[in-house]
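Tokens for Glycosyltransferase 8 domain-containing protein 1. Go.
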Amino acid sequence: FSQLTFARFYLPNLVPHAEKAIYVDDDIIVQDDILELYNTPLKPGHAAAFSDDCDSTTNKVAVRGAGNQYNYIGFLDYKKETIRKLAMKANTCSFNPGVFVANLTEWKLQNITKQLEKWMTLNVEEELYSRTLAGSITTPPLLIVFYKQHSSIDPMWNVRHLGSSAGKRYSPQFVKAAKLLHWNGHFKPWGRTASYTEVWEKWYIPDPTGKFSLIRRHSEAYEAK
């Protein structure tokens, strides 16, 4: 995993003078005015707003081979005493941290970054993450820290699982209406086997340095094997 995977944990350090910020993964396309997402209201005391995995948009898709990834038990090992002591219900809806809005003032007040670091350290020591986890090592600590302490974003601002398989999951009309498209999963839009690559290609601008194009060719060659 790249160290940049954890950049979202350090937003106050990256934009120290900002009061609010949007985090998005690199496998997304924004199709509407992102100011609407930025203006997502956060409840008092909440440091972030995420898209819940039980929303109607997400439930259109079943994630194959990823265990039960719609609730907490899909990400955390409830056999571990440290997890049980938190008294978090295993069937609580999880959320997707690939797109979120953060209140950085509240984030700093609650020392969210230090809390996340604590759970990363404990996982190294005790292996607290579920063994069915589908590779998202940043999600479990966020689920713990923000358990019932986060606001919600409009699910159309994180239409996801476009990369969960090479097949079409949504209708063309739905994809067109989505405010944000998210290719989370193993099939990325810069690879040959991804879904909805025509949407990605519509907005794709080649890197003038040529570095991204080289990475892309290597990715396609790997997928072809």
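DSSP finds nine helices and six strands in the chain.
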